[in-house]
Amino acid sequence: MESKITDIKSALQPVKDGDTLMVGGFGLVGAPLSLIDELTKLDVKELTVVSNNVGEAGKGLGILLDQGKLKKAIGSYFTSNREVAKWYNAGKLELELLPQGTLSEAIRAGGAGIGGFFTKTSVGTDLAKGKETKEIDGEEYVFEKALKSDVSLVRAHKADKLGNLVYYKTARNFNPMMATAGKYVVAEVDEIVEVGELSPEEIATQHIYVDKIILAEQVLTKEGVVQK
Questions:
Q1: How many helices (H) and strands (E) does the chain have?
Q2: What family name appears in the similarity comment (predicted)?
Q3: Residue 118's closest CA among 137, 101, 136?
Q4: Residue 226 has what pLDDT?
Q5: Separation between Cα atoms, residue 58 and residue 207, nearest integer Å
Q6: Can you give the pLDDT at residue 223?
Q7: What is the pLDDT of residues 137-165, one digit of tens each?
Q8: Which of 160, 164, 155, 208 is CA-nearest to residue 186?
Q9: What confidence score (pLDDT) does residue 228 get?
Q10: Can you tell me the distance from the alpha carbon of 17 to that of 150, in angstroms, rounded to the nearest whole number?
Q11: What distance in Å separates the CA atoms of residue 108 and residue 111, rounded to the nearest whole number?
Q12: Most-buried pick from 58, 92, 104, 145 (CB within 10 A)?
């Protein structure tokens, strides 16, 4: 079997103009900061990013935003980066706002081969405008399409050499489901161990979903983002 362990530049070679990227993280916690940093060095544009938020001002995905590489952002908490509103109001960024649970389920559905689902969340609000609705058992529901990506960038704590992934506490957040919904998946990890060293009970993402593994070069600490 070809090794999934690679360097960061090689891992991102498949990313091209116009791709849809899923990027894990809640704020900067659980975000693949090394992979994002490498993306800022690539000559790519017109990207659609599916992520809970667009990083923070000048941090994480916020750097890609400042570079003008993002065409659209799909997420639920854009106010963590006030620059998003500036780009949107200037007509330079499309936004699709989804309630957080809806975002999570849409990604999960994409990974499970489900085309979409009906939910009560957003019924009667601006978020439901233009979307199909349906009455079920006397209550109104809104249809939400599943989300999938060309490339998913996820952050885990450990990987074995096959690509099985273990996450660290709440840094797990959106990462496992994004790994299932991507055509090509890169995992950024703190440590790579031998096959058999991870307990089956702690593996949240099975190796079949992971294409490439890289060691993290940047980590989030109480002092901020630092190089390892």
A1: 6, 13
A2: Belongs to the 3-oxoacid CoA-transferase subunit A family.
A3: 136
A4: 67
A5: 33
A6: 61
A7: 999 999 999 999 999 999 999 999 999 99
A8: 155
A9: 73
A10: 11
A11: 5
A12: 104
Kindly list the structural domains of the chain, giving each domain's residue range(s) and its CATH number in brackets, ordered by start: 8-227 (3.40.1080.10)
Q: What angle do CA 19, 55, 227 make, to 5 degrees?
A: 100
Instruction: From 3, 2, 40, select the one nearest 153 (Cα to Cα).
Output: 40
Cα separation, 214 vs 37, in Å, equals 13
The residue ranges of DSSP E strands in 77-138, in sequence order, are 94-97, 116-119, 133-136
Average pLDDT value for the chain:
95
Ordered DSSP codes for 195-228: TT-S-GGG--B-GGG--EEEE-SEEEETTEEEE-
Beta strand residue intervals within the chain, DSSP E:
20-23, 47-50, 70-75, 94-97, 116-119, 133-136, 139-145, 149-160, 165-166, 182-193, 212-215, 218-221, 224-227
Beta strands 224-227 and 218-221, pairing class: antiparallel
pLDDT in tens, 90-111: 999 999 999 999 999 999 999 9
Segment 182-210, tens digit of pLDDT: 999 999 999 999 999 999 999 999 999 99
Amino acid letter, 169: K
